[in-house]
Each structure stands twice: as C-alpha cells, then as structure tokens.
Amino acid sequence: MNGNKRYLPLLLLGFSGVLTIFACRSRAISKGNQSNNSGKTATAYRAFHPGSTWYDKAGDTINAHGGGFIFVNGKYYWFGEKRGRHASEGVNVYSSPDLYNWRWEALALAPDSTGASDIANGCLMERPKVIFNQQTGKYVMWFHLELKGQSYKAARAAVAVSNHVTGPYRFVSSFRPNNNMSRDMTLFVDDDGSAYQFYASRENYDLRVTKLSADYLSASPEDRLLFSQHREAPAIFKQNGTYYLVTSGCTGWTPNKATLHTSRSIWGPWQQVEANPLKGPGADSTFGGQSTFFLSVQNKKDAFIFIADRWNPRNLRDSRYLWLPVQFQNGEPFIEWKDEWNLQVFE
Ligand code: GAL
Asked: Which of 9, 26, 113, 305 could hold 295 in an S-S bridge, CB 3.0 to 4.6 Å?
C-alpha cells in the first residue's frame, strides 16, 4: 500500500506523458484518427504534410524511400527502399486510390537470404522504379544495386520482374549499362512506349541516359552522355513535348541545391535553366531534401508532384518525404514549399 502511494505520482506523470505524446502525434498528423486492434493509430489523410511522419493505413510509418510510382487499375503504387536504421531491407510497395492514404501491400523484392546472388543480404537496393511493359504484360523494376560488402563501389543497375504489380518480383540480373558505372537512377516511359534509364555515371560526374530493350529487361546500346556536371538523383517529367530533368549535387545524404535541365529530345541537347526551380526559404537546400521522382496525377492536365527524400542518415528508416506540387509560370515549372496542401491546387 505504502509502496503504491510512493509510486502514484510517478504513475500519474507517466500517464500524462503518454497522453501528451499521443496528443502531439494526433495534432501532427491531423484529422480522422482511428485506433486499430494493434493499438496503432490509423489516420485518414485529406492533405499532404511535407516533412511530417507519414503513417500507412495500419498506423506504421511509411518505409519507401527513393521512391517511384506507377498507376494501375485505379490505384497508385508506391515503391521505395525499405530501410532499417542503416540497412537496406529490400523494396516495399504500398497502394493508394487517392495519394493521401497508403496501404502497405508487400515486400515486393526481398534481399536474398541464401547469400548466393547479387542481391544477397547486405547488398544495397536504392531508388527502385517500376514500369509496365505492354508487349510482355510484365512489371519491370530497376534499381541501383551495390553488392554486399563493397560500399558504393559496384555501381550497378539491377532488374527484377513480376506478373503482378505488387510482386513478388524475381531478380533477373545486375550490370553496368553499356559498361558504364550506374548509381542514382530513374526510369522514364515516353509516349511511344520506349523506356529510358537516366543514371549517374563515372563516379557521378556524368549524367547519362540509355534506352531500354523492348522487353525493358536490359539496356540497349543506345546510350548517351547528357552532361558532366557532377549531378545525381535524377527525376524527370514531360510536358508539351519538353522534358524536364531535376537533379541534385553529390553530397551524399546531405541536401544541396537542385538544378533543372530541359530538352526537346531525350538525347539532348539539355540546357540548364539558370533559375533554381525551387522557390522560397530553404530552396537552396531543396527544402532539406533530394529529388527522386515526378509523379503524374491521373485525370488532371499538367499535374505533377515533385517527390524528394529528406534523409536522416542516423536513422534512414525515419527519413521523411517531401511532396510538393509543380506550378507553372510563363510556361516555366517551379516548386514552392507548402506546409500542407491537397490536389485542389491542380484545379
Ligand atoms: C546519395 C544518393 C542516395 C544514397 C546516398 C548514400 O548521394 O542520392 O540515393 O546513395 O548518396 O550516401
């Protein structure tokens, strides 16, 4: 009894602490929370909150970094690096009908626990992108692969394939496209169904592009140097026949200033736009993030979302997502910080 009394203030303090944490978390994610059986908080989002922790429908933090997106049968699918504190744990895939609320679907590609393949446990799988091949009816994933125990030396592209968007994906092969080093990368499918890999090469000094083979499973010999400006983290979209390519500088996990290049042809010439495409406070450090993708919003004209990672190198799993709308002024795209926004900006 006496003992209980002694602990009562401590208990009350602990309880009020828990309440405060819960209140703060509810406020940060705002609106429509519901507890599920596991006691986690599922949130019904109606807006984007760049830089805030983003929970999936089960109440877990979304773990899909360096992401890429594809739209299939009324749903968006978000592929991204599943990270531990530092480890690379494969490629997660989430789905959403509305872009705000995401359901974890699967570990689309797992590292190989038998240890024999290029994607053996301990390898690094970064910046996964998935595209659909109309001719073969298959989903094809490309990602930046680093072999186990070699840090970033291998500099390879890797390919995996599946009959279903959510996988599981079967690892096909890893290689250096046309014998060029390949680190940060993205994929782009053009209007005629041709697909391209944009990749940072020659110790990241070169930004290159290669056209994929017709089945998208390998790089074709068509391959070109776009510019040698020590850029990485390529993200691309096309509007009115112009290609827009955003890249970052090469400072590892630390943010830096983005640049925009434009071209009327994938093969170039690519011109750097003088102005920073990001505007406002924090623009010179890409708002603390690094480009990964431009998501094209369905059923809206010229509606693109700039997607970046705000890396947390002390705990990569907790790196945050920056989603911001691409706006246009006199035909030039720009990206402005917003604490909160929704798809109505595109109306
Ligand atoms: C960045 C790159 C990331 C990751 C990181 C490792 O430059 O964009 O995807 O590879 O380096 O330091």
From this structure: 305
